[in-house]
Amino acid sequence: METTAAFAGLSCVDCEETFDAETATHRCPDCDGILDPAYDYDAIDLTPADLERRDGDSMWRYAELLPFPRSAAVSLGEGATPLVECPALADAMGVGRVLLKDEGANPTGTFKDRGQSVAMTAAREHGASDVALNSAGNAGQAAAAYAARAELDAHVFLPSRAGFTQKAMTEVHGAELTVTDPVGGNSQISDAGAAYTAAMQDHPEWYSTKTFVTPYRHEGKKTMALELLEALDWEAPDAVVYPTGGGVGLVGMHKAAREARELGWADELIPMYAAQAAGCAPVVDAYEAGADRHEPLDDDAIDTACNGIAIPDPGASHLILEAIRESDGGAVATTDHEILDAAIEVARSEGLEVGATCAAAVSGAFALAESGEFDADDTVVLLNTGAGNKDVDSLRAHLGEREAMERDGSVA
Ligand SMILES: Cc1ncc(COP(=O)(O)O)c(C=O)c1O
Ligand SMILES: [Zn+2]
């Protein structure tokens, strides 16, 4: 297996045992906990000055801080996404600066590409022939794309509620798609998870690239924070507001902020804020209750149109909550109405397209601003995890509802 110089293997976040990445491939062999790539930071031969001389072509420009070198990467040019100034939003929120990190610019239109790029690299390094996962939609599409690139067969399990684009493109990339309860149903990610688990029992040779089953998805997503910090001259912003489902991106970004501090590149951690939909907010509930882990919600209790964050049982909630607390961030839930309104406001006031799920970060930031969380000179970063055109149906439907309400004179 080709790995980078400082990569020191996998460390279990639960029992703290360390494992050789050649033999340990997924969850902890001892306790089934989450494995996390570990590094010998003294062996990292990279400085911010080196980075300045490098191309901003993809997230693999940070390869020294990833487990695999660029030469081994399964890459479609993911990362290196724009950080766009949003003066109208800054004005409306009463803060110094609002910046939007636009992950819609990734090859399959979401930040999921970063995670699948590293996970698919690991799959190929481990000699896999097939990869499998269940997902809310975007990760399935990304996995199909990266598997195609790596010449692996992909098996993707999605709930019926996943978007048409995600289902269609999964098949266009040549993956085998299973949609749970496809005819008129409204199945959830847990249904897709059950179908995936059953298939994995029949095919133990399939290599999983599922959230926090592979140790490499949060590792890929940590590059979002490296790009952000580098763009801000290694000065942490006052807040990153992040639409949180399984928390892969939030946990990954927090890890990168810790690493940047450990390496002496940045002085402060990035305050991480988890934004969820009020109709599925297990992390916000746990945060407000002062708990270390979430209470799983029943599928019947899920009441949000935001697919990517309709995650009732986020298995890594302890890591999300730890990241929020350690970084002095927070957690906020807003209603679907507020979320979809926020997507439309961004599209109209800034010209930027944010996905329905992603707009939870925008409405969440507005709610935080209203509650007095931010100062007038703060820099607030909104993580737009995916392109607006992935969710056109929910956005257009909301616009239609708003227009009908305005016509009736009920609500403006
Ligand atoms: C667009 C979008 N944003 C956010 C999320 C939540 O991701 P995470 O697991 O990093 O919390 C998803 C997951 O499906 C998504 O598709
Ligand atoms: Zn363990």
Question: Strand count, sense and closure of the main sheet?
Answer: 6 strands, mixed
- The assigned structural class equals alpha/beta
- Strand fraction: 15-25%
Q: What is the average per-residue confidence, as pLDDT, rounded to a whole number?
A: 96
Question: Spatial order of the strands in the main sheet?
Answer: 4-5-13-10-11-12
Measured as a percent range, the helix fraction is 25-40%
**Would you identify the regions where 5 or more consecutive residues have pLDDT less than 50?**
none
Q: Any guess at the CATH architecture of the largest domain?
A: 3-Layer(aba) Sandwich
Give a list of the ligands.
Answer: pyridoxal-5'-phosphate, zinc ion
As for the number of domains, it is 2
Terminal CA distance: 59 Å
**CATH class categorisation of the largest domain:** Alpha Beta
Secondary-structure element pattern, one letter each: EEEHEHEHEHEHEHEHHEHEHHEHHEH
Helices and strands, with pairings:
Blueprint: E1 7-12, E2 18-19, E3 35-39, H1 48-52, E4 83-85, H2 87-93, E5 97-102, H3 112-125, E6 130-134, H4 138-150, E7 153-159, H5 164-172, E8 176-180, H6 189-202, E9 207-208, H7 217-221, H8 223-231, E10 239-243, H9 248-262, E11 272-277, H10 282-289, H11 317-326, E12 330-334, H12 336-349, H13 359-370, E13 379-384, H14 392-408
Parallel strand pairs: 5-13, 6-7, 6-9, 7-8, 10-11, 10-13, 11-12
Antiparallel strand pairs: 1-2, 1-3, 4-5
Helix pairs in contact: 3-4, 4-5, 8-9, 9-11, 12-13, 12-14
